[in-house]
Design brief:
Elements (H helix, E strand, L loop, with lengths): L10 E4 L2 H4 L3 H28 L6 H29 L4 E3 H34 L4 H4 L2 H27 L8 E2 L6 H5 L7 H34 L4 H29 L8 H25 L2 H18 L4
Parallel strand pairs: 1-3
Antiparallel strand pairs: 1-2
Length: 316
């Protein structure tokens, strides 16, 4: 089979969900609205956490990092997909494809680890409240953040370099919304079975280890909450934890489908729907899930908006 020249001057064609949709204009409008919602909600949450000193605690520092990751993740994929559709172009250079893959894997991997650290934070806050500021000091919190970014970027770099070193076949069409490992390996003109096994093992490790931490943390939290004498304290703990578990369920469900299920169970249409879910829908919903059910965040938002109104309308 003939190969095409997979160099920095070559490129791919991203044949994502907008190309295959029966109503591409409507889907484009929905994706645009979701992207604007993701930008607004995540940006506003970051602003509120930065400006309100009452939220300068580990829980909200980690939540701010989650919003930052979501904001960057959706921006790596969505603007290009929309611009390509509006300009009737769908090409991406070899280097651009590699960069998009690296950034997407880094941000996805970092969020994966961060969600586990956020579960541990909730465990310490609920099960060991008297030692919270010792076990979750500012130094420990920033160490968690740095660990998430560094481990994810190293894993992403290795996978990106190895995936892009394969020779690719004559077809340059990637039947996917973005450059990711599974659809790219389908274009390879080489035996990728061993590497696919490595991707599977890495995916299982990167997903199941943090997920086991989350399950263990919330099992201990549930035991503690059930023994709380105060109904108010029990309800507050459950509301906080349910928000986090909702985000965990959305993220890990999509990631498991993409990187843990065998390739035989994948289809192009399903993969595209899942990719839209975790790159566009989830980043738009995450800050709403956390903020709308969190009285401290909503209170901080009202204070920040109140200060803004006083500055812009002193006589108001």
């Amino acid at each position: 089979m003939k190969h095409w020249n997979s160099t920095l001057g070559s490129g791919f064609m991203l044949m994502g969900i907008l190309k295959d949709s029966e109503s591409p204009e409507l889907l484009c409008a929905i994706i645009t609205i979701l992207y604007m919602l993701a930008l607004t909600s995540n940006g506003l949450l970051l602003l509120v956490i930065a400006m309100d000193s009452r939220l300068h605690v580990p829980m909200y520092l980690l939540l701010g990092q989650l919003s930052l990751m979501d904001l960057l993740f959706t921006s790596v994929v969505t603007p290009k997909a929309l611009v390509d559709f509006l300009r009737s172009e769908n090409t991406i250079s070899f280097g651009g494809c590699a960069l998009q893959m690296f950034l997407a894997l880094t941000l996805g991997g970092a969020e994966d680890l961060l969600l586990a650290f956020m579960a541990y934070d909730r465990y310490v806050a609920i099960c060991h409240p008297l030692n919270y500021m010792v076990l979750m000091s500012t130094r420990v919190c920033w160490l968690m953040v740095a660990t998430s970014w560094i481990l994810a970027s190293l894993s992403a770099l290795g996978h990106t370099l190895y995936t892009m070193h394969f020779p690719f076949c004559m077809s340059q069409k990637i039947s996917h919304l973005l450059c990711e490992i599974p659809p790219l390996l389908k274009l390879a003109c080489a035996d990728t079975s061993r590497y696919e096994l490595m991707v599977y093992v890495t995916g299982v490790t990167f997903l199941l280890l943090p997920l086991s931490v989350i399950v263990a943390s919330y099992t201990l939290i549930l035991v503690t909450v059930l023994h709380m004498p105060s109904n108010e304290g029990r309800q507050k703990a459950l509301v906080t934890c349910s928000s986090h578990l909702t985000v965990v369920g959305m993220f890990y469900g999509a990631a498991t489908f993409m990187y843990v299920l065998p390739s035989s169970l994948h289809s192009t249409k399903q993969d595209n729907i899942i990719s839209v879910f975790y790159t566009i829908v989830t980043p738009a919903l995450n800050p709403l899930i956390y903020s709308l059910r969190n009285k401290e965040v909503m209170g901080a938002l009202r204070r920040v908006m109140g200060k803004y109104m006083l500055r812009t309308h002193p006589t108001f």
